[in-house]
Specification:
By secondary structure, the chain is of the alpha/beta class. The protein is built from 11 helices and 10 strands. α6 links the parallel β7 and β8. The structure holds NADP nicotinamide-adenine-dinucleotide phosphate. NADP nicotinamide-adenine-dinucleotide phosphate (NAP) binds next to α10.
Amino acid sequence: MHGYEIRKSLFSITKRLTTRRSVLPKWHRTMASQLPVKFDIKTSYKLNSDYSIPVLGYGVYQTPADVCEEVTLHAFKAGYRHVDSARAYRNERPCADAMAKSGLKREDIFFTSKVPPKAMGYDNTKNAIESSFAETGLSYIDLYLIHSPYGGKEARLGSWKALVEAQKAGKIRSIGVSNYGVHHLDELEDYIKSSKDGSHIDVGQWEIHPWLPRDDIVEWSQKRNIAIEAYCPIVRGERANEEILKTLGKKHGKTWAQILLRWSLQKGYVPLPKSVTPPRIDQNADIYDFELDAGDMKSLHFPDSYAPCAWDPTTSHD
Ligand SMILES: NC(=O)c1ccc[n+]([C@@H]2O[C@H](COP(=O)([O-])OP(=O)(O)OC[C@H]3O[C@@H](n4cnc5c(N)ncnc54)[C@H](OP(=O)(O)O)[C@@H]3O)[C@@H](O)[C@H]2O)c1
C-alpha cells in the first residue's frame, strides 16, 4: 500500500475511534493524522494555534496591484478562501479590498502576509506588521510569516519575538516561517523551548513540488503538526512538457497543472497556485473530482531531485 492509502485507512480507523470529532484532539494531532479521506474545496487543517487553514490557497506574488482586487474577487467566486500575499508583493491593500467586497464573512477568509526580508529584527518587524494593518484596514490577520531567514540569528529571533507579541495581542492568529532550512528551524525551536513564551510554529512555506520534494524539511515539520504550504506548486509552468505529466493528465482527463496540484494535496500540503487568468484560476480549483493512485504518486516521486525554480534561502548560513 502507498503512504497516502495507508494514511487514509489509518485515518478512518482513528476517526471511528475518536467519537464524531472532525479533527483529532490536540494531544495526538499530526499533519499526517489530519489527511482527510476525501478532499474538497472546503477542506482545512487545524493548526497548532487551534485556528484552521483552508488547504487550497491563492497566491498573488507578481500579481500587479491594479488587477489584484479583480482577480482575487474571481478567486473567491471560484471557491478559494485563502489568499497568500506579503508586504514585498505590494498588493496587500487590493487583497483586503477584494475581501471587503466579496460579500463573504471575514472569518470565512484566511489572509496571509509576510515580514519583508529587509525588515528582519524586532523593531523592523513590529513596524512591518503595523504597516500591514494600516494598509489593509483589517482588524486581524490570519497568518504572518517570516518571509526568509536572511539577516542572522539575532534578527531572525527578534522578528519571531515581534510575531509572538502580535499574536498574544490578538492581531495575528497564527505565525510561521518561510524558506527556513532545518538548521534555521532547529535554531527557532531551541529559542522557543528556552523562552518563557515563544509560542509555536503554526505554518511553514517552501517551494515544494515533485522536482523539489524537500523530504528533510517536510519530515521535521510534519512531526510537529506544522502545516506545510507549497509555493510554486505548478513550477511556474516550467515542467508543463514533462512526459509523466502528459501521461497522468491523459489518464485522468486533467491538465498538467491539476495533476501537480492534486499531488500536493495528497502529500498533505497546502498548495498556493498563482494565476491572474480567470479560466486558470478556475482550473486550479477544479482538482477534487479525481485521485492519483499509488502508482501515479510513485511516478512523481523523485526523492533525490533538487531543482528550485525560485530563490532558495533554506541553504543560507548567516
Ligand atoms: N515565500 C516565498 O518566498 C514565495 C516565493 C514564491 C511564491 N510564493 C507564493 O506562492 C505562490 C505561487 O508561486 P508562483 O506564483 O511563483 O508560481 P506558480 O503558482 O507555480 O506558477 C504561477 C505561473 O503559472 C501560470 N499558471 C497558473 N495556473 C496555470 C495553469 N492552470 N495553466 C498554465 N499556467 C498557469 C501563471 O500565469 P498567469 O498568472 O499569467 O495565469 C504564472 O505564470 C505565489 O503567488 C506566492 O503567493 C512564495
